[in-house]
UniProtKB/TrEMBL annotation, chains A, B, C, D:
Pfam families linked to this entry: ADH_N (PF08240), ADH_zinc_N (PF00107)
Record-annotated Enoyl reductase (ER) domain positions: 2-285
Organism listed in the record: Tenebrionibacter intestinalis
Gene3D superfamilies linked to this entry: Medium-chain alcohol dehydrogenases, catalytic domain (3.90.180.10), NAD(P)-binding Rossmann-like Domain (3.40.50.720)
Name of the protein: NAD(P)-dependent alcohol dehydrogenase
GO MF annotation list: oxidoreductase activity
Domain of life of the organism encoding this protein: Bacteria
InterPro entries: ADH-like_C (IPR013149), ADH-like_N (IPR013154), ER (IPR020843), GroES-like_sf (IPR011032), NAD(P)-bd_dom_sf (IPR036291), Zinc_ADH-like (IPR052711)
């Protein structure tokens, strides 16, 4: 997504750290407070005010200088307090992947205990969706092409693990739900996969569109969209207020984000290589 | 949609008439009451209980014997009282087209005065959407390929009429809304048109998917769905409770459904021909 | 509500005017823009962040210096654009009374065409509630002790006018609604009147608590609150975002606020006297 | 609540049992199904259709013959499937107390993980509210006059236990929440206690009015209701659809209802005596 960012450019959107100093008129934080960054800089609450023709993507580490640095300067409006029960390495994973899952399932989805949730794959958002859904008492279905990853997902709370290499996963969903389908489909793949999400969703269920792993247009048969009448909701991370809600929830549901490996600041190339290899959980860089 | 209906089969889903006689234990109606039929037989309130794999379409005149008849027998649960301010010819148009527009904009959409609504074309649902939106104080945009139809739409309350043969209608929307886009897009076309609906919709706006005029899959670029994060809602008419709400509203907003021509019962062939020719407003058959 | 405001103090919360000059970094307005003030200074969107033990009342003209002045300086965050279809004298009435009625009926109430609304009396909020409800296609009931005021209310769109001196108004409501009660009760009286609002409300209806004309505690029989299960909502004006929504709506529903008399700046004592005498509509001071 | 029920009358509203036989045309159940009864007979989904002047109370064991019997005959519409993870003795407790708590917190309240919930006392509804709130990841506060009951409540998941005999419980709430107050107050006392609930609730929080232990009118100072703007919701148990949702949730959150003692059918007098003595958890009669 080349966006003409000015060079030199500091990448990175997800940060946890300590407030070293505050400017004049700061009211939200004091020196020494542990904080995490807000992904959509300046989106505080309510709807995102965006342009309909050429929507901006005003995020930290993209439109604004990022956080892969020992020290950053940013508006106090772009920060929230870190959760008390997480380390910095864990807390920084909430900023994008955690909030996206929370926003889809809770803020927009109003997930209730006893509902069914489908998670596709084991990427960062998918694992948070699995953990949040399980913590809320939902019945979680997950698909993956790896039995090993499914076993780990089961340990994290997934009740139904489907290897999509071994069977048609939509048929498995129909069978496992007695053809009732899934209340909340978290579609982190997109493109042509959306048609399968529509096949899997329950009547009047919800599909959260999050990912663009498949580069084709998002598409599905129109008849199914009318007959089953799902709510389809595009998700673009979330507001600072919702991030604060997530932080509060994390402390009470004792959610421990899944992290893959940690790297030193000077190991950034190895960290990116690990990302390319397919991590299970978030990769953390310790800049300190 | 061949569905193996038993022959002889009576078609027709939309009916207004008078209760001639009631069966034992009837509590909702008395002889002489003016009533209209409910499209989705047996869907009373809340979510539609449907099969996720092979969703049924349990509607009158399709899965059940229809209403193109001088007398019909049906459960009192499938009827609601007719509005007091409409003739039978007008009242019967609420059953499918009227309720679909109401369900999209009001029941699901929560439309508020001052919001923007885009109506595509001048079909039955589109005209109801135009009239309901205008009655609720919305700012209505409409597209058509006919200047004559646009002129009639303007007389019905549309504030912005766009001839999609003469200009790119999405660009017109962007220009007319100062690139803020449309709060409620009523997409009665579907298929590849959905991509244009996504281009036209406001950030965090709503697209109601209603029609299948375009037979291709419903598709749009994934990036726009994430950046603008619209709510996309498949609409399959609505419940009996919502039909009752619409009836009550019709009397208070003095909504007069647009009807095209009326035909005698024995003119059914001509009525169907008129439908094929492209009616403006609903076609009515007087069976009495 | 003596709150230790510093003297000299400028009263007044509702203002319409023109931006004379903008400070460095201003982005929301330009010189020459017509604006109105936001009642709850700093409440932009979402929930009001307030203290549960000693809730503040951070409003303009109370906690902050007010607007009864030829020139005021305030943060651009405390202003919204004025509606294009209203004069300044009309526009300033939206700030408190208009937004309160809008917030109760639309933002919180989700009012739909065809629903019933009860307005109690003919104060500023009550008249806005009447006009907004009627513009949205609701069926409006109003009570007053004056036949003359009821006649004016009828001209503004009220369908059922009840003189509470001549009959028990709750019994009138029961009779007029066929004992179904009222969907949205706008209680601008409070205190012991709340019990009558509960008697009048429909099963699962809504009561918006707005006024404190009766100084007794707000009270009602518990059994009725359980059996009819209304939603009771305290209303404290509303956010800046909702004020922007109202402004947009006003232009599209052509709402013309009811104003009583206008006074010159040096006639303030007479204006306050008129207020004490019981105005019908808002009183305006032209400070220019 | 003497209601002129015909004698002989069978009391009791909460039942779990097995379908012994089904009538012609039954579709929801088969012989042998484990079922529980629905409290509000005939309230299936959506709003309760009730009279505004003299609201009915059409519940089983009150307006209809009850369930304290070895065999009962009732419409299949008045039953839902029992949860798979509960015994009959546990399952029957969901019908009234369980559904009331669920309806207040989840159906109406939309409770989210991380929010604060206040439970007053340790009655049947209160204990369910505590357990449901904790299962959803909420932070639970509870008041009681007994340290022993508070200790048991702590074991059930309450994080903050306040002995209202030893301190002003509202002041304790203010202190423990850093004066932010409580997001969801479950007021099972009513009457004059409502004023304390209003003092305790957070700005824009929610108070569910459930009980009538205090026989005075429900009352609170009007100023607090406006400044804090809580949503106050009368709760009258709930619909059959919500009971089905609760049953599904119970199986997934592994909720085990708290039961006090079980009695044989012929020990009914002792059971009622135990009820009068103040049970902790629900009392069960085994009629089999």
């Amino acid at each position: 997504m080349g966006n003409g960012m000015p060079m030199p450019f500091t990448p990175g959107s997800d940060m946890a750290g300590v407030v070293e100093a505050v400017g004049l008129g700061t009211t939200r934080f004091n020196q020494g407070d542990r904080v995490i960054s807000s992904f959509n800089a300046g989106w505080i609450d309510g709807k995102l005010n965006n342009n309909a023709k050429n929507p901006h993507y005003n995020t930290i580490g993209y439109a604004y200088q990022g956080v892969l640095a020992e020290y950053v300067v940013m508006s106090e409006e772009w920060l929230v307090k870190a959760p008390q029960t997480l380390t910095d390495a864990e807390a920084c994973t909430l900023v994008c992947a955690g909030l996206t899952a929370w926003f889809a399932l809770i803020e927009r989805g109003g997930l209730r205990a006893g509902e069914t949730v489908l998670v596709q794959g084991t990427g960062g958002v998918a694992l948070f969706a699995l953990q949040i859904a399980r913590a809320m008492g939902a019945e979680v279905f997950i698909t993956s092409s790896s039995d090993a990853k499914l076993a780990t997902a089961a340990a994290l709370g997934a009740s139904h693990c489907i290897n999509r290499k071994k069977e048609d996963w939509v048929e498995a969903i129909h069978r496992l739900t007695n053809e009732q389908g899934i209340d909340h489909v978290v579609d982190t793949v997109g493109g042509r996969n959306f048609a399968d999400s529509v096949r899997a969703v329950a009547s009047h269920g919800r599909i959260s569109l999050i990912g663009m792993m498949d580069t084709h247009d998002t598409s599905a048969p129109g008849a199914m969209l009318l007959l089953k009448s799902p709510t389809v909701q595009g998700i673009g991370v979330g507001q600072r207020r919702a991030l604060g809600d997530l932080v509060r929830a994390v402390d009470w549901i004792k959610l421990k984000p899944v992290t893959d490996k940690s790297f030193r600041f000077d190991e950034l190339p190895q960290a990116l290589e690990q990302l390319d290899n397919g991590a299970f959980g978030k990769i953390v860089i310790n800049v300190g």
